[in-house]
């Protein structure tokens, strides 16, 4: 009788331990994927890129490569991108070096006819380190060379005016953006590339963004994006004529 009781207790203990292990396994959260090695956030659009079919015959696909200005554009005015061969690949906060790393996956592999490259402001804001205009221009030039090597028309942008970054006050970026835009324009002229001037139609008397066209002094509102839409369409038509 005692042996039987011991056996029953032993079986019960084993059953309890197995059940406890199963409960623990059910409750344990799945390990979170580590993206520390993905500095350029390549994973953000990886699935969308895979699902995107190749351009249809005659399709003139255009990729918008940039940071928050482009990412928020699709969020605020999605209708601009609907029904058009436009692929938005903006990621908020990115600097020009990150755009360069993403260029193959988010531009070349999508086989567009043109790419709009909007780069430089986050570099100037020191969002990810401190970068010189030369470094920004080197990254832009590398993207242009990659585009041209793959028969993609690069469209360069004069950056939007910003009097002060709302997240980094006191950097006085207005004159820095003007200086960078002059270098971008000079390079575009040298290479005979289309320059998409987002600066001039949005600026106020301080060389910041007009109050009626911005949400925070750095990002356009719907009215600002409507102005950008018009000149963007004109630049695309010019580049692809």
UniProtKB/TrEMBL annotation:
One of its GO terms (molecular function) is phosphatidylcholine lysophospholipase activity. Coiled coil: none annotated. CDD domains: SGNH_hydrolase_like_4. Keywords: Hydrolase, Signal. The keyword Thylakoid does not apply. Residues 1-20 form the signal peptide. Residues 73-227 form the SGNH hydrolase-type esterase domain. The keyword Glycosyltransferase does not apply. This is SGNH/GDSL hydrolase family protein.
């Amino acid at each position: 009788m005692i042996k039987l009781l011991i056996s029953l207790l032993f079986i019960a203990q084993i059953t309890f331990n197995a059940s406890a292990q199963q409960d623990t396994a059910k409750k344990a959260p799945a390990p979170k994927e580590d993206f520390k090695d993905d500095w350029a956030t390549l994973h953000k659009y990886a699935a969308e890129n895979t699902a995107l079919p190749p351009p249809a015959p005659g399709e003139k696909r255009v990729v918008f490569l940039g940071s928050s200005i482009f990412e928020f554009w699709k969020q605020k005015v999605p209708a601009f991108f609907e029904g058009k061969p436009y692929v938005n690949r903006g990621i908020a906060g990115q600097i020009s070096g990150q755009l360069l790393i993403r260029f193959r996956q988010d531009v070349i592999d999508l086989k567009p006819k043109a790419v709009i490259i909007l780069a430089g402001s986050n570099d100037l804001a020191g969002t990810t380190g401190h970068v010189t205009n030369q470094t920004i221009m080197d990254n832009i030039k590398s993207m242009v060379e990659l585009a041209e090597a793959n028969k993609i028309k690069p469209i360069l942008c004069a950056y939007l005016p910003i009097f002060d970054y709302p997240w980094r006050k006191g950097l006085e970026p207005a004159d820095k953006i003007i200086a960078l835009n002059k270098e971008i324009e000079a390079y575009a002229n040298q290479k005979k590339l289309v320059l998409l001037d987002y600066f001039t139609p949005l600026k106020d008397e301080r060389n910041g963004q007009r109050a009626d066209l911005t949400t925070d002094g750095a990002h356009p509102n719907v009215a600002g994006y409507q102005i950008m839409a018009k000149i963007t369409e004109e630049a695309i038509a010019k580049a692809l004529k």
